[in-house]
């Protein structure tokens, strides 16, 4: 235990008892115990936290290395007339930023200033960032990297269930599941401790690659990238024609089954096999396994979601789960695996282009009035919804687009689709400000870089993948010269003319405010407090404040009813369609992207951890042996992976895990090795999710030129 960040002054190792907190990286939010003083922080998994149950992955074990990483940002940097980033005082840096933001707004209007947030930010920071954008800047131009992550899942689950909670049940429910279908998820690499909850179940894994997760599967369906929607419709078709639909459940708890059946009636198994490459017998087996299980789950990951039809694909898998009577039934369910540390809370707190805290809507007058009253501003002064993440990045520095951008918690120069174009747009800005603790590739483009505190140096809350609100606790004070994101936003807001009390710097105060802002909303946190969390209570939202007692939270969201007014879940009628671009003679292969265990996201953090850099040092492209032979690609040689959008350089990894028609490149690497140099700008019409998971590419050898 320890005091709140902001209480400064160095502490000696002897003063430091262990601090219970959570891993800085993914949404599993494994609980950890930190020990030792600056420069020698130790980590061990908390033994009794139900989600990780004493497990950590390699990233979690090595996370302390990030605290004292040699490149750590310890002073503000301002780009001088000579074009070089040079150290500056906080006052000079903040005065400069505030002055230029004010002038930009005066000259070009409030929407000329934009904000880009992140799903790794604590609830308190995501909330404050959204408020800062709408109130201190008055801009509608705010979105965040969660658009690239959970937006398709969110759009589909909101439509189907009336509420978007990634897992509407605790992770431990999976322990007793008999069959779990994982569509486009590779948790053996992306959330290793989650596999402890999947030991009993027979796994059906849907992935074009034979991943480490697929190796553990009872059944591996290996579709062509971008064909999951056809596959899901085919599975639903089979459930109906084989008489496996849970009619009683469908009648009692859902609407829209007839329309959904119409949309999949023409997807008879042989047609689905022709489109997806999945044998009919395997599809039939998958459906029978799910239908025959006493308890079963259907879960989707980014492999099924990061497509220009991602939200319809999730809707189709939900349709399958509904037909089999899984969602909202004790011990069974449908869920989506949230990705970033606060990927769940970060999508509820109002940093999304169309959203206010608590999952309130920026277009609903009652929602606007409620939040405006908590913020002490006129509802009419709140801007409307803005463009989505990619559209925002695409518009930067154009005549109609923003001229200044503040980035908190993302590295879009590496992680955004069409990264070369996005880098160009970032460079076209009059002012780019990046708050980070490492010099990311995006920070390297900035005019002003502001050094902030990290996970183990700050207090706050994050909401894990099962909707449980968790406490992040400070073990150390931030190094001298470094501020917290909340302190930074406070200082900027004041310089922009805001009353100081409107932007508190103490996380607990921010949390108490966001409780009020979310009260009565779908993601209701009003019954949750630091005191309850610190007492060890497991609280899943919604957790409303109730008179005369403590609400126990909602571990299982849909047991009695779904969140639509009529209490029923909605089937959707969706159409399969090809990806934005299919392979052709010039670009004959499917290029897909994703993750490896030892790197995290754009790699800004994990590439700086020596053990992780050593484990996964550079970009590679997985190629099937037959394809490699045909293309003259030698294992270990450098290759160019090229699409109409651009090309990436990666080392060839010849492996039978790949389909013959598909290559895979991880997106964790910078410069010429960015996978996003070949991804395109097709977006899902509903969620605005980019098509990260399928491009048409060709792969050619390059000489080992230095
Ligand atoms: N080690 C590590 N762990 C992480 C992260 C990380 O960067 N590194 N990031 C975290 C975050 S933010 C996220 S969002 C999660 C993501 O977690 P996952 O969704 O598990 O990760 P990905 O590797 O992006 O994609 C999963 C799988 O989708 C497959 N795939 C590709 N195309 C298709 C397709 O068309 N259909 C289907 N069905 N599958 C396809 C890929 O082969 C890959 O194995 O991981 C979290 N955990
Ligand atoms: N090709 C391809 N591209 C993808 C994906 C894919 O599968 N394929 N996946 C997409 C997905 S799912 C995601 S989530 C995105 C993620 O991609 P990014 O948004 O780039 O995520 P990170 O690399 O985690 O970048 C976070 C940055 O913020 C910093 N940071 C971390 N915590 C804080 C904080 O509390 N405050 C501040 N100020 N800074 C902080 C980190 O040091 C880092 O530089 O990438 C997307 N891009
Ligand atoms: S699984 Fe995720 S939360 Fe757990 S240790 Fe690994 S990166 Fe951290
Ligand atoms: Mo993500």
TrEMBL record:
Keywords: 4Fe-4S, Iron, Iron-sulfur, Metal-binding
Domain (4Fe-4S Mo/W bis-MGD-type): residue spans on this chain: 16-69
Matching CDD domains: MopB_CT_Fdh-Nap-like
Alphabetical list of InterPro entries matching this protein: Asp_de-COase-like_dom_sf, MoPterin_dinucl-bd_dom, Mopterin_OxRdtase, Mopterin_OxRdtase_4Fe-4S_dom, Prok_molybdopt-oxidoreductase
This protein's record includes keyword NADP: no
Name this polypeptide is given: Molybdopterin oxidoreductase family protein
Organism the protein comes from: Streptomyces salinarius
Organism classification: Bacteria, Bacillati, Actinomycetota, Actinomycetes, Kitasatosporales
